[in-house]
């Protein structure tokens, strides 16, 4: 019989360089601090988790995760049974409010260890496989006009199914880029807009009014995350463009409030944003029950966090939109695993090995296999 009590949790922060400056309306960065969790059970099973939030986006970094985990979450999870995931979350929530990325790192490590303990891939623990392969979108960050157009062209040629472009800093520049990409890529390639809270409600509508003749797949998080009235204001006047909630749906309760307020047609459910796989699946069920659809985005996690997102999307019906969950590995010049997940013609397959299905560099924690 498996002995599944958690006996050790370690966290290590690794700063990984980005290949080029990553910029959205909230911030710009050249490096990312990734918090990597190593969890061990009493029978020697090891699970890994990862979170890589930005302070401007979530109020957390790899370093705050390290502090919160060592001072609060470690004690909450030690001694618990791997398979009591609801209890682990209850204890984490009781120990400290918020800090959903820190909790996600623990949650992902727990699921990795659960899968390894049973000899099953994580998606089997989440309900089984709904889709055999997952279509991917690519995100074009804020950069020069020529760079943005070239990057979008290249990613479409590589097979990415949706091009998501960051907007929200200069309306005229946004309009020019949208119009150019629609002309360059044709109507067959969906274009998704993401303002990361960069607009007021009226500014968001002004953008949509100026590109009415350019079909837009969705408009993600046009207004500040707390402005649910503004989100609904935009949705009611957006015409045929669906409105997607991201930062406004950072918790299960947030997502419920967005639905009650009729503020969004779609949701972006990021495993590392909402507290891990357990919470992500709860939100996915809520979205499914409302008859809506979702995508899974990225906090620029590399392959540990990305693998968690892939298992999540593979197992949840609501996650039927193309996802930009594999953004981090492509944008960083280093990784935490020996073999990152492969993108094949704009799609990714879910790992079939036990746990997350990736091989983590144990040297991060002073261990060698």
Automatic annotation (TrEMBL):
Keywords: Isomerase, Magnesium, Metal-binding. GO terms for molecular function: metal ion binding; racemase and epimerase activity. Its cofactor is Mg(2+). Residues 145-241 form the Mandelate racemase/muconate lactonizing enzyme C-terminal domain. SMART domains: MR_MLE (SM00922). The keyword Isomerase applies. Pfam families: MR_MLE_C (PF13378), MR_MLE_N (PF02746). Belongs to the mandelate racemase/muconate lactonizing enzyme family. This is Mandelate racemase/muconate lactonizing enzyme C-terminal domain-containing protein.
């Amino acid at each position: 019989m498996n002995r599944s009590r958690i006996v050790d949790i370690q966290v290590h922060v690794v700063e990984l360089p980005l290949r080029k400056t990553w910029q959205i309306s909230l911030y710009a960065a050249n490096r990312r601090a990734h918090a990597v969790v190593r969890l061990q059970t009493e029978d020697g099973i090891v699970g890994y988790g990862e979170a890589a939030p930005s302070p401007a986006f979530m109020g957390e970094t790899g370093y705050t995760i390290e502090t919160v985990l060592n001072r609060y979450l470690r004690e909450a999870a030690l001694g618990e049974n791997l398979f009591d995931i609801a209890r682990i979350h209850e204890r984490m929530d009781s120990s400290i409010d918020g800090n959903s990325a820190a909790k996600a790192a623990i949650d992902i490590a727990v699921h990795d260890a659960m899968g390894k303990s049973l000899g099953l891939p994580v998606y089997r623990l989440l309900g089984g496989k709904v889709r055999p392969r997952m279509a991917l979108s690519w995100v074009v960050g804020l950069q020069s006009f020529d760079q943005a157009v070239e990057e979008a062209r290249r990613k479409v040629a590589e097979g990415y199914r949706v091009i998501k472009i960051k907007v929200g800093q200069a309306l005229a520049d946004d309009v020019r880029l949208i119009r150019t990409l629609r002309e360059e890529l044709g109507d067959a390639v969906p274009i998704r807009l993401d303002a990361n809270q960069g607009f007021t409600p009226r500014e968001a509508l002004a953008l949509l009014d100026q590109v009415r003749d350019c079909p837009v797949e969705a408009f993600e998080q046009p207004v500040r995350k707390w402005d649910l009235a503004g989100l609904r204001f935009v949705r009611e006047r957006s015409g045929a463009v669906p409105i997607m909630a991201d930062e406004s749906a950072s918790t299960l309760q947030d997502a419920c409030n967005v639905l009650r307020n009729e503020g969004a047609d779609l949701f972006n459910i990021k495993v590392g944003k909402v507290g891990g796989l357990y919470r992500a699946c709860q939100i996915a069920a809520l979205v499914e029950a409302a008859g809506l659809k979702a995508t899974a985005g990225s906090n620029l996690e590399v392959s540990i966090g990305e693998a968690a997102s892939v298992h999540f999307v593979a197992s949840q019906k609501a996650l039927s939109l193309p996802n930009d969950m594999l953004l981090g590995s492509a944008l960083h010049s280093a990784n935490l695993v020996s073999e990152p997940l492969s993108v094949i013609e704009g799609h990714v397959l879910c790992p079939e090995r036990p746990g997350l299905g990736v091989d983590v560099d144990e040297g991060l924690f002073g261990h060698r296999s």
